[in-house]
Amino acid sequence: MSAIARRPEADPLYANAAPERAAYATGMLLDAQDFVDEQTYHRGRLARALALLGGGGTVAGLEVKYRAAAAPRPEEIEVAPGVAIDALGRLVEIQRPACLRLAVWFEGERALDEGDTLRRAALNKLERFVSPRVKAAGALPARAVVADVYVRFVACERGLTPSFAAGPFDALDAVAASRVRDAYELHLVPRTDGLDDGFSGLPPGGPDLAAIEDLDQRRAALQDGLLAAYPKRNASGALDPPPGHPPELDTTAVFLARVFIPVDAANPPVRTASAPVVDNYSRRFTPSGPLLARWLGA
Questions:
Q1: Domain ranges across the chain
Q2: Minimal CA–CA distance to 112: which of 121, 100, 99?
Q3: 3-7, 126-130, 222-226: the lowest-pLDDT one
Q4: Are 154 and 183 in contact (CB under 8 A)?
C-alpha cells in the first residue's frame, strides 16, 4: 500500500489551536471536520503533556552508528530503532534500523553546488563541537566535514478510498486517504552556519542543577527554569527554533547525533580513508521514570 507524505503545516498541531472539544447532541449533523477536531483535541492534549513534562529529545534507542561498506551493503550511517519526542510533543518512532548512504550523500552534496557546502562545513579543532564524553575519548580527526543527524515527524496518507470530491468541482469518482500513518524522515545536515569557538551548533544543555551545592540556589534555578519552560512562538505563530538549529530545517526536527567525516585540505574537500566519528551524546535525553529510579538506586 503506497503512502503520500503530507506537508508539515497540514498537521493541525502546528496551528496551536485552543483546546476545544467537540460536543455532540442527538440529531446534530456532523461532517469530516468534526471528527478531525475530535482527534486534534486528544492529540494536542497528549502532545502538550509530553512536550512539557518530558521535554523534547530521545526517550529510548535511536543510537547512530557508522557502518563501513561490506558487500552487498554500502557504507551507511545507521539509526537504531527508538522513540523521540519533538518540539510539538509528537512521538517520532523508528521501528526498524534506518540508514543513510554516506557515500551517496557526500557525492550528492558535492554535485549540488560544486562542493561549496562541503567546503564551508569542513573544520579543524573539532573538540570545540563535541560532547565531553567524545572529547575525553580523543579519537577525533584533524579535519572533518561536520554534519548533524536529525529525525522529524512525518504524517503519511494511506489507503485511498472512494469519497465525495472536495473543492469547487463535482465528481463521483474521487478518492481520499482513509488512514494517516505517523512516520519519520531522517536528515543529515552539513553545518555551514558559522561554527566557531563561541558557537558549537549543539542543542543547549541548560544549567547543571546537580552542580549547585547550595539548596536555596538550586531551588531558585529550578523555579526559574520552570517559569521559562513554556514554548515560545514567533509573530506568525510558529515555534521559535532552538539555539543551534539549522535555519533551513523544520523547527520540530529532533537532533540525534553529530557526524565527523574526515577530509583533506583540498577545496572542495576530499574524503580520507579514516572512518567517520559519531557523537551520540550531545543530544537531549528524556529519561523514563524507571531509569531515573535506577540512577537514584531505588
A1: 4-204+242-295
A2: 121
A3: 3-7
A4: yes
SS3 68: coil
Q: How confident is the model at residue 3 (pLDDT cuts 50, 70, 90)?
A: low
Percent of the chain surpassing pLDDT 90: 60
Contacts of 66 (CB under 8 A, 6+ apart): 76, 77, 78, 102, 259, 275, 276, 277, 278
This prediction's pTM: 0.90
Q: How far is CA 232 from CA 67, 87, 240, in A?
A: 38, 11, 6
Distance CA 184, CA 209 (A): 33
Maximum distance among all Cα pairs of the chain, rounded to whole angstroms: 74
Judged by DSSP in three states, 60 sits in: strand
Cβ neighbours of residue 220 closer than 8 Å, sequence gap 6 or more: none
Distance CA 157, CA 7 (A): 11
CB 77, CB 88: distance < 8 Å:
no
- Spatial separation of the C-alpha atoms in residues 116 and 128, rounded to whole Å: 22
> Phi/psi zone of residue 280: left (φ > 0), alpha (ψ -120 to 50 degrees), beta?
alpha
Map residue 181 onto helix, strand or coil. strand
Chain position carrying cell 545536515: 189
| Residue 168 banded pLDDT, cuts 50, 70, 90 | low
End-to-end CA, the chain: 47
Check the CA dihedral 98-104-107-113 and report its sign.
Answer: negative
Q: Which three cell numbers stand for residue 149?
A: 543527524
Torsion of CA 276, 247, 135, 293, to 10 degrees: -110
* Locus of grid cell 577525533: 140
